[in-house]
Protein: Glutamate--tRNA ligase
Organism: Leptospira ilyithenensis
Amino acid sequence: MTEVRTRFAPSPSGFLHVGGARTALFNYLYAKAMKGKFILRVEDTDQDRSTEASFKIILESLKWLGMEWDEGPGVGGPHGPYTQSERLHIYKEYTDKLIGDRKAYRCFCSSEELEGKKKQAESMGIPYLYDGKCSELTEEEIQNNLSKKAPYTVRFRTPNKIVIVDDMIQGKVKFESKLIGDFILVKSDGFPSYNYAVVIDDALMQITHVIRGVGHLSNTPRQILIFEAFGFPLPRFAHASEIVGSDGKKLSKRAGATSVLAFRELGYLSETLRNYMALLGWTSPDGKEYMEDSELCSVFDIERCSKSPATFDVFKKLKEEEKETVDFNKLDAAGLSDYLNPKSKLNWMSNKLIRDVPIERLGKEMEPFLADAKIPNEYKSGTHPTLVSILDSVRVYLDRLIQAPPYIEEFFLEDLGFENDEAKSLLLEGNGTIVAKTFYEQILSANPTSPDQYKEIMSGTGEKTAEKGRTLFMPIRSITTGKSHGLELPILFTLLGKEKLQKRMEILAKVANITLN
Ligand code: GLU
């Protein structure tokens, strides 16, 4: 059997967003599952939009996600170079051959002329197709234009036929080539068009499976026609379903199609994002969702990919007014956190993995998030025993690593005080001091060790004082933290432990000038 060879072919004109990363992942997983090769190819023929910065971000994103490529930039391989701008001589060789075989021709029409014809078609409400003006130029006319150095594009002489894309996910899809027209293979700057370069490269790199987003399905008949013109064997095509947001609409650049590196900053582990993305359009044979990497790499199969749109439920549905103003890519992790859907599948998976990973790994992963934490420097190492033990007791409550530092900070907090007058007044107003006293007494006479037990004590305090909601929780928050908002109290209390908690209440009572007993 021939070796399976898949490729991810990003254009370096932005960051790697979830849609692109899902495409990369499907290619990666399929190659792994079939014991084949995963190739990375950089499609930078759009010189105006391609940047070095984007290239670097894409590579970093793939590496963070653990998708190492077998052939490609930095790694090399037998079919390089793997960056299209370094392959222009190869495309030229093939273009000359196509022109020689009369399967392509030079088009000297000026862009103004074409633009005018396009406008005319538009005004008549008909789709624009090139009229083939240059398709039958005589050799003399061509030579004449070339000697005048007239700029030209190279167009494909599209044969008139029905093209059937036999797609592994979308099924058989028919296209009529007469609706495509003679399209451009080489632009006037000498760079190949996407559809052209992709075919030469997929053929020469011996790609067996082209897996990509369904948005590219309409490009496929053009590509098939080029494969056929050269007599190259066709790869199998698989176009993965569209990804939609919680509102059922296509992910937009501003809200949803977020850089995968933002997920690293939000404190998700890379395996979580991978596991989650694998399920965007694919289901495992036994319906299992939470899977280890090794399992994903062995059970993934294109046959189990679905045509129906996949829902990316990571972000909340935006309010009408937010749709105009919000741009996720301009927000930092804290800002972006506000838009996360707390009940997303991603959070569920993330919490599970944070509980499951070896604590040493978690400590290491935690380090970048501790850099700015207000804790003594010696505890900022992910291997410090105290830090590790705090992390170990708090991890079951975390959906993301970024949620841990505030708990760790509270744990180390020494000079307790009220952060502002509001925080203090929450304790001193109304029944606040009674609530605080009652809570203190109840803690003294109990031995709580879990968030549930602390919750119970808080409700007990509520019953005794006939307070509930804000007037119950705020005085408790104030007397234990000196703040008016913040962490989940039962979790914090469990982490601090009864003794430390008691001490904190005594200190804050002194600052507020009240007595607790
Ligand atoms: N460079 C194309 C893109 O980024 C690749 C499409 C393909 O996989 O053929 O969309």
User: Anything to note?
Assistant: The mean pLDDT is 95. The two ends are 81 Å apart (CA to CA). The domain at 421-512 is CATH 1.10.10.350 (Arc Repressor Mutant, subunit A).
